[in-house]
Amino acid sequence: MDSNKACDIIIFGGHGDLALRKLMPALYHLFQDGHLCKESRIIAVSREKLDTAQYCGLIAEKFQTNFKDDSFDVDVFENFKTKLFYLSIDLTSKDAYAGLSEILKECPQNERINYLSTAPSLFGTICKHLYESELILPTSRVVLEKPIGNDLQSSQIINNQVAEYFKESAIFRIDHYLGKDTVQNILALRFSNMLFAPIWNAQYIDHIQITVAESVGLEGRWSYYNDYGAMRDMVQNHLLQLLCLITMEPPSTLKGDSVRDEKLKVIRSLRCIEGEDLRLKTVRGQYASGVSNKEAVPGYLEEDGGNVNSDTETFVAIRADIDNWRWNGVPVYLRTGKRMRQRYSEVVINFKDVPHSIFPKGGECIDSNKLVIRLQPEESISLFIMNKVPGLNEGMRLEQVELDLNIQKDAPRSPDAYEHLLLDVVRNNPTLFMRRDEVEAAWVWADKILDGWKEQKVKTKPYTAGTDGPAASIALIERDGRSWYEK
Ligand code: BG6
User: Fold this and answer.
1) List of residues 6+ apart from 124 with CB closer than 8 A
2) How many A from CA of 219 to the centre of ligand 1?
3) Which range of residues forms the domain containing residue 40?
4) pTM (predicted TM-score)
């Protein structure tokens, strides 16, 4: 049982997709595992006209169909229900907050968490109404879901609006990739083992690859996605956060600002991609119809709600360079896309070749070492090293072998990213949340590319759904004499 303080957790947008698919299951699991104090309450707020009983019925139905393991327990759910309230209000109307105020005053808790799982355009309005309805306590925190804006300017506007009512230390900007156990394991791998520390630099590492591939398409999110595209939806946040964890300097502590200071330095050291580099170092793609998981699937433009004129990218590949001493000359290749061959997220650290081969046939038979960190769907860490083929071969024959560094094969259920992050908000621990300057620095870098694409009219390249993206993304890395890692 956790010693967390009792708190009221208010989910704005409580009927939305994220709340039903991620937030409510995460809160249920935290409750089931004893991480939520008994007096804590969860108040889902949304426009849909439901009462608490109907909302609980809806949640139960979703849990029963969506939980893949046996973690749905009827008795636990009966208890969980007693903590849950639903309130149907128009979030844009100040008067509507009176209902929320009533529930909160019935049994006031000292800690209050406002989770804004709504369109970002509502963030400012909700904060204002909370303030004017005197619902912000000195201990109140606000959680902001991405996307925070769609460029630097719009993110500054949203951040300014929220900052009028909450101080920076009370603002928790979520990037759910940071809540994944496997992503946090990057910190453990790098900073609790001496083994890799001395070789984690340009002297020993040739290049790094970060791939986040999805096999799903739009999943009915056209109206959101078409305005954002893969660059804003994935690269500006999730991929940059992975890049930061892999390349940042060791922070002096695991506390919020130490880690975030180091990540910020990396983002600020990313070289701008502009001018003719745009066409050499970036690729935009858009999926056409194809076959995914053995089923015929429509192309992006034929998706529900689609618009045949859209040139929104569903795939991005980028060669990023970090201009600092540690990473001088070490490119980081980023790649993400929807409707790709398979769903996987992976970081590959490619080490340099040995400087001179003493083995027959020159150096051709010596593959460089690789550290492959697979983040999902399964978690694994493998080190590829050269080894002698056993036996009495003439000369010395070598082969690459995989050292499996996994130690957690039979680990219990791995908590979902949102469980981890929600618990950190309850515990008031900001380490895994993005600070304003970090988000804005990421927009500065991403905006340069987005603006360049627009100015230079860089069009998307089509790729067949169920493949590895456009051929141009292979050319991007091959121009540098390298290739994407394929297991
Ligand atoms: C979200 C994006 O942030 O991350 C989605 O908006 C994407 O488009 C999702 O599908 C991927 O998350 P995960 O955890 O499934 O890799």
Assistant:
1) 157, 158, 161, 162, 164
2) 11
3) 7-145
4) 0.95
